[in-house]
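tool=predict chain=A
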Amino acid sequence: MGVTTSGLVTTSGLGTTSGLQRPVAIVGGGPVGLTLALFLDSYGVPSVVFNADADTRMYPKGSTENCRTMEHFRRLGLTPAVRNIGMPEDHPTDVAYFTRFNGPELARIRMPSDREAHAQVRASEPTDQTPEPIFRANQMFIDRFLFQQAATRANITLRFGWAVAAFEEHADGVTVHAADTRSGVEEHWQAMFVAGCDGAQGVVRRSLGISYSGHENLQQAFHGGRMISTHVRAPALFEEILSRRKAWQYWALNPEVRSVLLSVNGREEFALFSRPRDDEPLPDAAAVQRIVQRSAGVDVPVEVIAQSPWNSGVARVADRFGTQRVFLAGDSAHLFTPTGGFGMNTGIDDAANLAWKLAAVAKGWGGPALLASYELERKPIAIRNTTAARELAKRIGGLSVPAEIEAESAEGEQARAALGRFLAGNEPQFGSLGVQLGARYDGSPIIVGDGEPPRDAIVEYTPSAVPGGRAPHFWLTRGREIGDSLFDRRGLGFTLLAFRGRGPEGDGLLAAAAERSLPLVRLDIGEAYAHDLYERDFVLIRPDGHVAWRGDNPPSDAGELLDRLTGRVQKNSGRQHVLREITTP
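tool=predict ok
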């Protein structure tokens, strides 16, 4: 059954309802669309979410919620509940490589269980940068959780089981035409803005005539071209073999078969990744069982729950991220190969960026240049992250498996040792902190840069308060729980960090913000280690957690600075001018 949580009355039977309004209409109820709605709700902005399927899809997808995504969930107050989803908290998140699951272990990339990761947080230094460690839960569980959260929010109207057929953008807003996929009842909504979070084949991008650019696939032995994801249940495999060799990912590498099993629930359920020939149909239940048995090295019964094809090696980015009132996010804006787990996480970072800008304009304190900055900031990150994922896929998918890898001989031992050394070097795929936390918006018109940003890298993240990057984290107290982090104390809007006890200095920013109805809170920070991290006495942090400006003294014209940071002014031929406001329909 679809869900409606608005108190609106629609016609019964075939009919049409018009005159329905929300500031933002979101097309697509996956993790990106639902996170966008939850962020808008936190800013007090109502939205309606359309999703053609009547419920979230319960088949395995990605299994990585990276550190930045978990920080966003923390800002929404969701992380304690999120961390109860998925595998048991004591289940290791190792990546283990075998010839076969009952054969020699070639390599193991050790990563902590969620319980161990929390212990590391409790023992962390004051300037540790991972208050929310990476988390492993299958996306289908995250989708369902976000759906359930959205259903409790009065500001969010869920239209699951409603397909958007068309929309028209006009001077005062966007008209969205949707129909109930079961009854045929139609609704016509008026919105200030539309967010297309409906994926690669969604109606929003295609209606705008926006193409993708980049790489469509990657032809190699594995993690290239047409791949199959199969949700399987195999209790005997877990009980007889894998329970003694626990990991989050299990790789089988032998001359007969190459496959990956991702643990879904820490027990008998798995997502199987396999690579058939491009001309082969989807494998039937018997074929899936043969793949699992050849990977396991033993005959075990396998139940096939669901399966879906996907294209590995893809790295494509939309040529444009929207128009003046219609925006793309998530898979609508960029397509990934799943190596590294960057796809959903990049989309949720899109949502965090877009949400505060939509809210600012809807509430009247953001200007039109603010919305224009969305593409300027997020498209380079999409190119960066899709490229990184493709490079990781090339490394792991293109390796050759020696014919003697299973031989009980000196040659076999040498082959296993050599392959194991190579596989142990795949840690960047699973520990990519630079990609997770290192996104920067240098050159954005709503950022006031003042220094040289750190070098960008897949693995290493260098915390820096040079405007444009994520505000470096620090703990404000000796505690390491919710409420103790800088991220817990920031306001819903902008946050002014004031160091070294500068007293009323900087209050001009608060006054200028009040004149503009711009939400701004001040945090006085006395810790020397925090000042050393930020290098200036005053720092402004945006609602999405990126540093917008810093200085050793308050700005000479606080209003002018805030107007720039919120897109109310732009530089044109050396002169600044106030831009036209976008009005509510």
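The longest helix spans residues 368-397. Confidence is low (pLDDT under 50) at residues 1-13, 572-585.
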